[in-house]
Records
---
Amino acid sequence: MSFTNIYRKEFKWNLRSFIIWTSIFVAFSFMYIPLTDQLIQQSGAMLKFIEKMPKLLLQMFSFEPELLTRPEGLFGSEGMSFVYILSAVFASILAGSMFSKEFEQKTIEYLLVKPSSRLTVFLSKLSVMFSFIILLTGIFTLFEVKLFDVFVHQEYSTKILYAFGLYALTVQVFFAAVATLVSVIVQKSSLNTSISIGLIIFMYFGDSLGRSFENLEWMSIISIFRYIPLIDTIKNNQIMLGNALTIMLISAIFLFAGAWVFKKTDIKL
């Protein structure tokens, strides 16, 4: 079976899931961005309420009182926190569907007995996975920018909106890479999902705990969310491009490891 045939099979197999997830991201943007002007007009009352909230809770969801008076700050400090989590979950589930489900349902045997190398099979699946990741990120970023253009009438930084898209892509690439490695090792979709979701929760909330408590700082250091900070990006009007690229490079290492394991591991009967 050729690269193209496997690509088409995987693309068709996972298209429905991709459409559902894309709809969730677009619906989230439609739910939040059109209300931005109204929320900013009520920011005074909102700030009084936020000032009474625990500092740890504010950090967990990237709340920064001074940013809630800026359109991109409002979306970035609240909306993007959920986009981070959604991105990580989507990528982990997608990778599991590409690899661990194939092992679990024994359909991987059909592919591996065909006259194609294991590397061809792996790269075909990887290409589909990253096609969906890039498409979803592109659609989300396009809707994000266009919705701001239509519904937000106050001054905002388009540069920061594109930074949000880059960060969502970075999160998806990282967790897709990790889930790919986990999938080819454990070969169980339920176990892959459990490990991936656990890692997402650990990294996301570990970053907040590490920045709040000195003795837990190590949790923040090993979290990717520390290096693509929403608050700092908005406050400094600076895209953490170098950090994002470094995270993607680390992700490539996980993918190389996954390819090696996929090539060497025997199929469990």
Note: The radius of gyration is 20 Å.
---
Amino acid sequence: MKLTPRSVRAFAFWAVAVALTYAPVRANAQNCQLGNEIDEATRNAIASAAQRYFALTATGDAASLKQNSIPSLAADFAGIEGTIKDNQQILAGGQGAVSKSFLLDASGTAPIAQAEFYCGVFGKNGQTANSAAFYLNNLPPGKYAVALLDATSAKGKTMFSEILQQTGTDWKLAGLYIKPAQIAGHDSNWFLTRAREFKAKGQLHNAFFYFEEGRSLISPLPFMSTLQTDTLFDESQSVQPTDIPAGGKTADLPSATGKYTMTAVFPQAVGDDFDLIVKYQSTNVANTALAYQDNVSVMKAFVTKFPEVRDAFAGVVARAVAGNGQDYGTLLAMKDIK
């Protein structure tokens, strides 16, 4: 079984450039309990399992984690192993504390096409300070738990989130999500402050990208929304540019050598730098020499069209993407794009 996130309001998952929409509260939503609403024995069992799986991840023990996963995840564990490997240095020697837990009851006998869980008290305008919502596609029936952990190590703070499924008296791993809570030493508030400064200066592209990054740094899961993420979503939409790709729509980028079709533009941390990623359609991916030339042209054209990005990013990564998904990327520091 794989948990498939559904597009929801208030979260932008830059790794795949997901465009999100709000799903209103519906009367037939599945049951959810949070925090102290969960009986003590169940809450303790969830916390114990979550802490154990964090420890296995922090020590790089993928084999034991796989043994403690639900069968469908264990059968396709390569993604989790990659996640563990990618975050090994960040989590090594770290401590993880469960900050929030949720119990999701998806009763029934068949998978739920569009499962919606509304946790806590919702007001007339939707989310409140202590509420949360989860949206999942094709969810098999069962009882699930979401455990959000705050992880700290010498490398900084990390959002460590687990999806657990009850199997008998055990809670097995059904999903694992690891995201930084800081980028290059900066947290969400830093990016939001910069976003508002860019907005005040009329640099709306920079403002939008920084709002999105600030929201991402407080969004542990791609299928979860809260009052805070909803509010930041609304704020980012007030400055969303119309000349960059969004909502599945492409955007044209004129250059000295022709016109390119951009498919996605989003910020991303590359090492200790905060760079801008520009993806575009290409038929030259298989020819790396031509793809490199196109990438350089795209970077020059993008910075020429949007000069304000020089104030906000250390560099630009252009990624030529073929119709079959194959891509070829080039990174240039901003000072080298002339």
Note: Residues 40-58 form the longest helix (19 residues).
